[in-house]
């Protein structure tokens, strides 16, 4: 069985409230060797980190999604650093800009993003970026932060355009692709995934969202990362074993504090 890694899960989500342990076990049985469960609001961090503490193969992030930036205007880099020192925390975020729904004003999203970036610099942990319909502003912010010193950057669930992709690549960013790659109308996403340097790519489910074909319309689970990985392998002309080894190497380079598992 090839090694699978799901770099972005939301296991604290209420969609998993009734059967979280069974979901995790199904993922392991499918070959998922590592998962990162993501913090979307600071008030949810206790639930997020508890999941990571209870499972040796699950790690966590600390952060506030840009949708909720307006509710986190008092969030400081110092608070993120304090929480982010936990040994199971491997990333800061997800943070970034989202101008699709505009649940929070852009200026609030920028302010909260800056606190996350400062914390990522201080902690030496990967900055996990959510960006949608804000390509130019996101590129400028990332370039500014990369100019402050070494910074590992992950463009999570990438659906943005080629210009942002190129600018992010120039500052060393990695890209994660989700089940969107399997959607019929996702040609733009597949185009970016087809051209991305093979040493800068990982995969994810973003579960419980974005279930890949043939599960679209159902609750997504970490075990569905197999379909995501297979879709990427087919897109790039890789065998399953080649793809597994490649994605694992990239993942453990991007998150160096996570112990490797054999592929």
UniProtKB/TrEMBL annotation:
Pfam families: TatD_DNase
GO terms for cellular component: cytosol
Keywords noted in UniProt: Hydrolase, Metal-binding
Binding-site positions, a divalent metal cation 1: 8, 94, 206
InterPro entries assigned to the protein according to its UniProt record, in alphabetical order: Metal_Hydrolase, TatD-like, TatD/YcfH-like
Entry-linked NCBIfam families: YchF/TatD family DNA exonuclease
Protein name: Putative deoxyribonuclease YcfH
Species of origin: Terricaulis silvestris
GN (gene name): ycfH
């Amino acid at each position: 069985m090839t090694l699978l890694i799901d770099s972005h899960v939301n296991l604290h989500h209420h969609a998993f409230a009734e059967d979280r342990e069974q979901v995790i076990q199904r993922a392991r049985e499918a070959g998922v060797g590592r998962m990162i469960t993501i913090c979307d609001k600071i008030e949810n961090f206790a639930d997020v980190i508890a999941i990571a503490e209870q499972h040796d193969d699950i790690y966590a992030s600390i952060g506030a999604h840009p949708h909720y930036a307006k509710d986190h205007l008092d969030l400081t880099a110092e608070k993120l650093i304090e929480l982010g020192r936990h040994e199971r925390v491997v990333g800061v975020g997800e943070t970034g800009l989202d101008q699709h729904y505009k649940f929070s004003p852009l200026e609030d999203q920028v302010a909260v993003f800056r606190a996350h970036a400062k914390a990522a610099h201080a902690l030496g942990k990967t900055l996990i970026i959510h960006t949608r319909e804000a390509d130019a502003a996101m590129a400028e912010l990332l370039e500014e932060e990369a100019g402050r010193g070494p910074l590992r950057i992950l463009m999570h669930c990438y659906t943005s355009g080629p210009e942002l992709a190129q600018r992010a690549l120039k500052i060393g960013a990695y890209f994660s692709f989700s089940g969107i790659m399997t959607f019929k109308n996702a040609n733009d996403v597949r185009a970016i995934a087809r051209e991305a340097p093979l040493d800068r790519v990982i995969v994810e489910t973003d579960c419980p969202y974005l279930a890949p074909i043939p599960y679209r319309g159902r609750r997504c689970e970490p075990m569905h990362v197999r379909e995501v990985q297979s879709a990427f392998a087919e897109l790039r002309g890789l065998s399953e074993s080649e793809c597994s080894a490649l994605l694992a190497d990239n993942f453990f380079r991007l998150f160096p504090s996570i112990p490797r598992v054999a592929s």
